[in-house]
C-alpha cells in the first residue's frame, strides 16, 4: 500500500498526563506506535528501547509525504536516539510534552494567567471553563443570575473567590448567614460596591430601608467610571438563608440586572437544589451549575499538592493514600482531611527520620501510624481536642481519655460538684426509678425479674427523651456516686440553680410545689460522657440502656 495517500496521513494530539491519542492512521500502525510511546515514557534514562525498523520507516515516509506535519511527542529529545538511528531525521517534528498548555481558553487573559488559575483550582476545570464562557469579556453583558449548588466542601466558595480574585473582576462577596436580615444584606452590598467605586477602605454608610431605596442607591453607585463599562458580580454564599427574609428579596436580586439597567450578575451559592429555594410567587430562573463531590482520586490529587519540600512527592502521596483509605468512608470534607493530614504526617515520618525505615517501606510505615489514625478517628475528627493537645497526646503515647479537660463540650468549666450534679441528673432522667436500687445499692437482691422486663421493653429511654425527677432522687444519686460525703448545704443548692440558669437543667412545674421541685436534664450523651471523663467517672456502666 502506498503511504503517500492522504488517508494514511497521521496527526497526533498533545500527550499530557490524562490525555489521549487522536489518529487517522491505519489501526495497526497507530496501535503499534501507542505501545511504543508508552514503553518509551517508562524507560529509564540511558536504557535502549528496540523498535521495529518498519515503524520508523513508516513514520519517516508519513512525515515526508503527508499534507500536514506529523508530530512526535516525547519527554526527552534523547529518546529518539534509542528508537532507531534514522530517527534523528525527525527532530524537527518533535514537540516536548512538558510544554504546558492551558486548559482554559479566554481571549482577554494571557496564557500565564490562565495557567496560574488552573493550578489554583485543581479538579474543577469543567466548572471553571463553564464560568469563563458565561462571564465573557469585561464589557459584555453577562447572564443575569447563576445558581451554583453542591454539597458541603465541594469547592463552590473557594472556586468563586479564586476565579474573581485571579482575574481581577469587580465583585461583591457576602455570606447570608452573617447578613441575616434583608436590611443588613442590602446595606452590605452597597457598602462593598462603594468601596469598589471610590477605592475607599471605609466608605460612608448608606441607609437602605426598602428594596426601592436599594435599587436607587445601586444605580447611583454603578455610575462610577471604574464600574460603568464592566460587569460587576454579586456573590451570595449560603443563599438558602434568603428563604428566611422578605418574599421580595430573592426575586428582586435575580432581576437586579433588569431593574437597574446595569451590567451586573448575581451568583447564588447554596447546598440545596433550586427547587427548594424557588419562591412560591415565581421569579426569574437562574442558570444552574452543579459542583459534584470530590472523588477519592480528586482528593488524592488535591491533598498531594501540599507535600512538604523536604520529602518527595511520591512519599507524601503514599501517606495521603493511607489517610484516605482510613477516613474516606466516614469523611469527605476536604478541610477536615487536610487538617488530619497535617496533624498525622509527622508521626508517619518518624521511622524515616529515626533511620528505622526508608520512604518505600510502606508496610512498616503503616504499622507505625495505624494506632494513631484510630485515635484521630475518635478525637480530632470529632473536634474534641485542639491540634496542640493532639500533638501532645501523640508525644505522650496515651489514650484520648487519659487527658483531662480535652473535650470541646467540657469548656464550660463547671465546678467539681456541679459536674457530679449534672451526671446525677442525667442518670435520673434516663434511668427508670426502679433501677436505682440495682445501680447504687450493694446488696440489691435478685435481678432476674428486671432482666425479664428489660427484654420485653420496646423503646430505649434515650429515644423517649429525658424524664423529670424530684430533687430528693437527684441528691440520693449524687451521694452514691461521689466518693466523699457531701452535705446538703446552700452551696450545693446554689449550684443546682446555676445549672438551671445555664440551661443544662430545666425546672419542671413551679417553684412552690408542695412535693418539692422537679427537674429534667437537657444535655446529650456525648456531652455527659465528656463531662464524666474529666472526673474519671464511667457513666456508661450506670445507664440502663447500655446493660
Automatic annotation (TrEMBL):
Source organism superkingdom: Eukaryota
Annotated InterPro entries: AAA_16, ORC5, ORC5_C, ORC5_lid, P-loop_NTPase
Location(s) in or outside the cell: Nucleus
Biological processes per GO annotation: DNA replication initiation
ORC5 lid domain location: 316-383
Family as reported in the entry's similarity comment: Belongs to the ORC5 family.
Protein known as: Origin recognition complex subunit 5
Amino acid at each position: 500500500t502506498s503511504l503517500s495517500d492522504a488517508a494514511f496521513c497521521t496527526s497526533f494530539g498533545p500527550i499530557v498526563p490524562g490525555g489521549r491519542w487522536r489518529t487517522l492512521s491505519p489501526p495497526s500502525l497507530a496501535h503499534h506506535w501507542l505501545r511504543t510511546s508508552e514503553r518509551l515514557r517508562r524507560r529509564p534514562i540511558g536504557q535502549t528501547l528496540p523498535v521495529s525498523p518498519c515503524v520508523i520507516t513508516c513514520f519517516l515516509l508519513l512525515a515526508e509525504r503527508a499534507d500536514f506535519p506529523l508530530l512526535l511527542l516525547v519527554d526527552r529529545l534523547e529518546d529518539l536516539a534509542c528508537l532507531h538511528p534514522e530517527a534523528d531525521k525527525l527532530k524537527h517534528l518533535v514537540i516536548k510534552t512538558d510544554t504546558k498548555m492551558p486548559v482554559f481558553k479566554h481571549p482577554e487573559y494571557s496564557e500565564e494567567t490562565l495557567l496560574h488559575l488552573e493550578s489554583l483550582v485543581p479538579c474543577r476545570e469543567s466548572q471553571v471553563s463553564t464560568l469563563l464562557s458565561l462571564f465573557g469579556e469585561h464589557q459584555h453583558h453577562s447572564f443575569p443570575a447563576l445558581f451554583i449548588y453542591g454539597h458541603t466542601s465541594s469547592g463552590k466558595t473557594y472556586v468563586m473567590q479564586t476565579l474573581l480574585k485571579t482575574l481581577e473582576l469587580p465583585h461583591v462577596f457576602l455570606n447570608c448567614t452573617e447578613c441575616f436580615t434583608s436590611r443588613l444584606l442590602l446595606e452590605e452590598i452597597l457598602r462593598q460596591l462603594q468601596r469598589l467605586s471610590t477605592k475607599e477602605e471605609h466608605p460612608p454608610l448608606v441607609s437602605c430601608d426598602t428594596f426601592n431605596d436599594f435599587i436607587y442607591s445601586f444605580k447611583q453607585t454603578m455610575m462610577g467610571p471604574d464600574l460603568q463599562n464592566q460587569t460587576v458580580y454579586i456573590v451570595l454564599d449560603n443563599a438558602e438563608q434568603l428563604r428566611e427574609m422578605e418574599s421580595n428579596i430573592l426575586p428582586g436580586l435575580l432581576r437586579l440586572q433588569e431593574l437597574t439597567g446595569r451590567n451586573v450578575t448575581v451568583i447564588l451559592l447554596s447546598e440545596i437544589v433550586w427547587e427548594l429555594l424557588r419562591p412560591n410567587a415565581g421569579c426569574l430562573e437562574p442558570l444552574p451549575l452543579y459542583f459534584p463531590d470530590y472523588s477519592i482520586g480528586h482528593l488524592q490529587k488535591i491533598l498531594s499538592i501540599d507535600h512538604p519540600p523536604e520529602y518527595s512527592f511520591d512519599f507524601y502521596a503514599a501517606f495521603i493514600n493511607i489517610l484516605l483509605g482510613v477516613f474516606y468512608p466516614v469523611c469527605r470534607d476536604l478541610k477536615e482531611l487536610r487538617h488530619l493530614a497535617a496533624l498525622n504526617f509527622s508521626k508517619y515520618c518518624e521511622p524515616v527520620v529515626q533511620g528505622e525505615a526508608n520512604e518505600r517501606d510502606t508496610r512498616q510505615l503503616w504499622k507505625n501510624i495505624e494506632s494513631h489514625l484510630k485515635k484521630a478517628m475518635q478525637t480530632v475528627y470529632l473536634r474534641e481536642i485542639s491540634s496542640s493537645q493532639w500533638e501532645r497526646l501523640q508525644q505522650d503515647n496515651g489514650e484520648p481519655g487519659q487527658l483531662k479537660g480535652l473535650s470541646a463540650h467540657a469548656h464550660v468549666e463547671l465546678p467539681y460538684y456541679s459536674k457530679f450534679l449534672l451526671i446525677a441528673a442525667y442518670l435520673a432522667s434516663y434511668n427508670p426509678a426502679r433501677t436505682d436500687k440495682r445501680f447504687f445499692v450493694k446488696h440489691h437482691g435478685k435481678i432476674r425479674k428486671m432482666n425479664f422486663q428489660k427484654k420485653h421493653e420496646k423503646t430505649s429511654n434515650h429515644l423517649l427523651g429525658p424524664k423529670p425527677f424530684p430533687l430528693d432522687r437527684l441528691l440520693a444519686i449524687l451521694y452514691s456516686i461521689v466518693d466523699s460525703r457531701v452535705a446538703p448545704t446552700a452551696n450545693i443548692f446554689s449550684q443546682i440553680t446555676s445549672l438551671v440558669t445555664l440551661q443544662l437543667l430545666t425546672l419542671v412545674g413551679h417553684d412552690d410545689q408542695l412535693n418539692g421541685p422537679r427537674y429534667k436534664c437537657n444535655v446529650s450523651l456525648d456531652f455527659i460522657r465528656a463531662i464524666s471523663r474529666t472526673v474519671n467517672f464511667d457513666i456508661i456502666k450506670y445507664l440502663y440502656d447500655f446493660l
